[in-house]
Design brief:
Layout: E1 7-11, H1 16-27, E2 31-36, H2 39-48, E3 54-57, H3 63-73, E4 76-81, H4 86-92, H5 101-122, E5 126-135, H6 148-167, E6 172-178, H7 191-204, H8 213-225, E7 233-236
Parallel strand pairs: 1-2, 1-4, 2-3, 4-5, 5-6, 6-7
The protein binds NADP nicotinamide-adenine-dinucleotide phosphate.
Residues 11-12, 14-18, 35-38, 41, 59-61, 82-86, 110-111, 114, 135, 137, 178, 180-181, 183-185 line the site of NADP nicotinamide-adenine-dinucleotide phosphate.
């Protein structure tokens, strides 16, 4: 599938992997619509995206806002969901007995139920050759310290995608599962701690570096274009599964 003139909606398209995906899709000629909760981040994203890209403030946990987003989108060739409640991640990563249960639930509500709501809303508008690409995370299958709930949420996204791929055939559903990727989600960490974490992870990975948003964007675009792939979960993790 060529992306030229295709309608692609990127939820969570104002930051990190979603923004990189929106930019790559727009540069490939797609008619991109990015969504996120905050208008200031949408404005900043649109200022950096190629002319013609559109944005709409929408919280995927709020049904009316999801409906308005897809009403604006019209017929959709591809939906990409990269959203997560970034502000709750720091408090959700903790041993189960010590973690902030409200933050863990907020992460689940935004990432899993938000994804479900976005997918449900797009179905009446998704073309017969259309594709959905979701983003999970390596903790779905790789034990990582403090990731009990994040892993479970990402596993739920992967399981949902496999079932949906069977249910809505011939339309396709795939998942990209990233390892550590340097995005704004780590911006709140003290710089020295963040640098030390990235350097330690880079040393541990077979590829010798942490991920960039563009690494994930390239795989998302491939999964939109490759019409022989559905129901798949693709690791883009620098070899984290074999580290
Ligand atoms: N970065 C990593 O190392 C890593 C590793 C494994 C998996 N992942 C997963 O990869 C995906 C992308 O992560 P990232 O690091 O690129 O994220 P990010 O930079 O924090 O961006 C998150 C995006 O989601 C939007 N968003 C958050 N809540 C939303 C909601 N309720 N409705 C609509 N939009 C919402 C944000 O905009 P607003 O804040 O304006 O809403 C922003 O555009 C996430 O699912 C994350 O869990 C990340």
């Amino acid at each position: 599938m060529s992306l030229q003139d295709k309608r692609i909606v990127v939820v969570g398209g104002t930051s990190g992997m979603g923004f990189a995906t929106a930019r790559a899709a727009a540069e490939a000629g797609a008619r991109v619509l990015v969504a996120g909760r905050r208008q200031d981040r949408i404005d900043a994203a649109l200022a950096s995206l190629p002319a013609g890209a559109e944005g709409q403030a929408a919280d995927i946990t709020v049904p009316d806002q999801v409906a308005a987003l897809f009403a604006r989108a019209g017929q959709v060739d591809a939906l990409v969901v990269c959203a997560h409640a970034g502000e709750s991640v720091g408090r959700a990563i903790a041993p189960l007995a010590e973690g902030d249960l409200a933050a863990m639930k907020a992460f689940f509500d935004a990432k899993f139920w938000g994804t479900v709501q976005a997918c449900r809303a797009v179905l009446p508008r998704l073309t017969a050759a259309g594709a959905i690409v979701l983003v999970s995370g390596a903790a779905s299958r790789k034990p990582l310290p403090g990731h009990t709930i994040l892993g479970a949420v990402n596993g739920a996204v992967e399981s949902f995608a496999r079932q949906l791929a069977s249910e809505i055939r011939p339309r396709r559903v795939n998942v990209v599962s990233p390892g550590l990727v340097d995005t704004e989600v780590y911006a709140a960490m003290p710089a020295a701690q963040r640098t030390a974490m990235f350097e330690a992870k880079a040393r541990a990975l077979p590829v010798g570096r942490v991920g960039r948003p563009e690494d994930v964007a390239a795989m998302v675009l491939h999964l939109i274009a490759n019409t022989y792939v559905t129901g798949a979960v693709i690791d883009v993790d620098g070899g984290g599964m074999v580290a």
